[in-house]
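Figure 6 in text form: structure in, sequence out.
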C-alpha cells in the first residue's frame, strides 16, 4: 500500500510538474496549499526529494522549489523510491536492498518469493514507465 508520505510527495511533484518549465522556483507554502500537504511534513518530503536529485531548491525571498529535470524524465517510481526506498514488498526480491528472509528455508523454491518478484517487476514496469508528464496528461484526460 502506498504510504501517505509517498502520496504527499507525488502530489507535490505533480503540482510542480504543472508549473511552466524554466519558471521561477515555487514557494513551499504555495506547494503545501495546492497539494493539500501539511507544511512541516512537506518540508521533510521536499528535502528527501532534493537529496534524491529530483528537485532543486533556492533559499531566500525569491526562493522555492523546482524540478531538477524535465517532467518527462522523472518517473513515479523514482519519486516513490526517493521517499520509501525499494518497491519490493519483501526484501528477498529487492534489486537495491536485497536481504534474505530469516524464516525462509529455500529461496529457490519459495512460492512467496516467486510471486513477489512478479509483483515487483510489474509494479516497477508501470511506475518507472509513467513520467510526471504522463501522469499530468492522464489527469487532464480524466477531467
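Output sequence:
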Amino acid at each position: 500500500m502506498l504510504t501517505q508520505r509517498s502520496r504527499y510527495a507525488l502530489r507535490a511533484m505533480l503540482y510542480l510538474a504543472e508549473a511552466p518549465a524554466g519558471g521561477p522556483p515555487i514557494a513551499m507554502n504555495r506547494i503545501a496549499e495546492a497539494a493539500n500537504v501539511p507544511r512541516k511534513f512537506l518540508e521533510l518530503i521536499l528535502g528527501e526529494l532534493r537529496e534524491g536529485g529530483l528537485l532543486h531548491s533556492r533559499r531566500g525571498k525569491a526562493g522555492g522549489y523546482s524540478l531538477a529535470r524535465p517532467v518527462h524524465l522523472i518517473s513515479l517510481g523514482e519519486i516513490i523510491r526517493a521517499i520509501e526506498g525499494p518497491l519490493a514488498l519483501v526484501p528477498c526480491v529487492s534489486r537495491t536492498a536485497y536481504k534474505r528472509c530469516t524464516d525462509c528455508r529455500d529461496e529457490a523454491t519459495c512460492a512467496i518469493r516467486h510471486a513477489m518478484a512478479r509483483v515487483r517487476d510489474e509494479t516497477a514496469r508501470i511506475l518507472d514507465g509513467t513520467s510526471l508528464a504522463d501522469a499530468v496528461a492522464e489527469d487532464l484526460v480524466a477531467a
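Caption detail: The chain has a mean pLDDT of 91.
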